[in-house]
Amino acid sequence: xxxxxxxxxxxxxxxxxxxxxxxxxxxxxxxxxxxxxxxxxxxxxxxxxxxxxxxxxxxxxxxxxxxxxxxxxxxxxxxxxxxxxxxxxxxxxxxxxxxxxxxxxxxxxxxxxxxxxxxxxxxxxxxxxxxxxxxxxxxxxxxx
Length: 144
What we know:
This is Integral membrane protein. It is a multi-pass membrane protein. It is globular, with a radius of gyration of 17 Å. It is an all-alpha fold. The chain is built from seven helices and no strands. The chain has helices spanning about 5-30, 50-65, 70-90, 95-100, 105-120, 125-130, 135-144. It has one domain.
């Protein structure tokens, strides 16, 4: 296997795992699944700022990143939401992530930034859509 192919497969696996973990965070906060929001067993109150909206970004963005559909903009939005979480929620508790509980936010922020910059890798819906001729895409869009 070539080095470029190996890198594309590794990036795809990184994208899927990162998106899956992020989507789990969103689902736990939105629906109370997997132990609920912050392990409370409860969901975040509907439309509560910023928790519910962050959870929506986590679930929708995570799913888009997993599928590799609009992966770069979705990953950029996810990265930005984690930067917001770090600087608004965690930074006031201490300077370093180790001291302020912000390791997860920092890791997600940088992980999604890598995906936004490098792209989705192999096996992404974006790659399949890019391969189709423009006429086929237009016919699919008008049929639905």
